[in-house]
Design brief:
This protein has no helices and ten strands. It has a single domain (9-85), classed as Beta Barrel (Elongation Factor Tu (Ef-tu), domain 3), CATH 2.40.30. The mean pLDDT is 92. It is mostly beta strands. The radius of gyration is 12 Å and the shape is globular. A hairpin with a 2-residue loop joins strand 4 (36-41) and strand 5. The protein has strands at 9-17, 22-27, 31-32, 36-41, 44-49, 53-55, 58-60, 62-63, 68-72, 82-85.
Length: 86
């Protein structure tokens, strides 16, 4: 029986700016523009590619463990949502 890959946690949403549609994510692993991530909180989940990221209002192509990044999200997401590698 083939094994199904379990998504790896990348970080957690620590804040969501509803007017901007931007989630602030505290990273536990590195992340780069173009990666596809899965946002999950309870039964609510959705996946999307990372089109752009910002650290302290400056655009970056990649971020490392420990960084807090801002990412434009396709749907509203609540604080505490897990961010997983899709």
């Amino acid at each position: 029986m083939p094994r199904v890959a379990k998504p790896k946690p990348l970080g957690k949403v620590v804040h969501y700016y509803d007017r901007l549609g931007v989630a602030i994510i505290e990273l536990k692993k590195g992340l780069k523009v173009g990666d596809i991530v899965l946002f999950k909180r309870g039964e609510e989940e959705f996946a999307q590619p990372i089109a752009s990221m910002q650290i302290d209002r400056a655009s970056v192509a990649k971020a490392k463990k420990g960084d807090a990044v801002g990412i434009k999200v396709a749907r509203p997401i609540k604080e505490g949502a897990l961010v997983m590698a899709a």
